[in-house]
Structures are given as C-alpha cells and as structure tokens.
Amino acid sequence: MSNQTNGLRRIYNAMGYSIKGYRAAWRHEAAFRQEAVVAVVAIVLACYLEPSPVARILLIGSVWLVLIVEIINSAIEAVVDRIGPERHPLSGRAKDLGSAAVTLAIVLALFVWGTLLWRHIP
Questions:
Q1: Which residues contact 77 (CB under 8 A, 6 or more apart)?
Q2: Which pLDDT value is given to residue 118?
Q3: pLDDT (tens digit per residue) in 68-100
Q4: Over 90: is that where the pLDDT of 14 sits?
Q5: pTM above 0.85, yes or no
Q6: Residues forming the annotated binding site for a divalent metal cation?
C-alpha cells in the first residue's frame, strides 16, 4: 500500500474520528444527551407501534435528523468558541443560525410524529 490514507485505512481512521465525535457530543453537549435519550425512546416507540415501513423510516429518520443537526450545531459552536471569547456579530450569527437549524429539525420531527400518530388516536 503506497498511501496510508487510501482505502480501508482511510475508512478505519474516519470511523475513529466519528467515534471521538460521538463521545465528545455526549460528554460536552447537554442538549445532545437530552435529544439522544428522546431519540432512543422514540425509536423504540416507532418499532413498537408497528407502522408501515415508510412511516417507520419517517419516524426514526426525523429524530435521527435532530441528532445530526445538533452535532453540526455543536461543531459550529466549538469552532466559534475556539476563535476567541470576545463577542462578535458574526460569531453570534453563526451560533444563532446553528440553533435555528436545530429548532427546524425538532419542529420537523414533531410534525412527522404528530401527522403519523394522529391516525392512531381514537
């Protein structure tokens, strides 16, 4: 193998970085921990309800999306905080935009769950 960053080695390294990211999110981000707990409960519920395969994908995918966006938001916040502690309008905008993205993902998840579960209410 001529280049250590090609092929399986690159995939292995990427997986290690991802695991470090998951651990950092769990260790340092209270919002991620809260959303992860809700996601686990929601995923179990989505499997218990026995919806159609498409409905199950939408239910699980919508809460999974919240976790994805939360991790991206946390990454944005970490980079902004790394730049410096002083307040700057662009830093505030970056953090606000990340927060807005998380809120949109949560609203989407609530909409999907509400829409798909509405038919189960007698």
A1: 95, 98
A2: 83
A3: 999 999 999 999 999 988 889 999 999 999 999
A4: yes
A5: yes
A6: 29, 77
| Residues of each annotated binding site | 10, 17, 23-26, 29, 31-35, 56, 70, 77, 86-88, 95-96, 99, 113-118
Distances (CA, A) of 92 to 24, 70, 80, 86, 97: 22, 17, 9, 10, 9
Catalytic residues: 70
Going by the annotation, the residues of the binding site for ATP are 10, 17, 29, 77, 86-88, 95-96
Domains and CATH numbers, the chain: 30-118 (1.10.287.3610)
Name residue 103's amino acid.
T
What is the C-alpha separation between 92 and 58, in angstroms, rounded?
A: 33
Mean pLDDT of the chain: 92
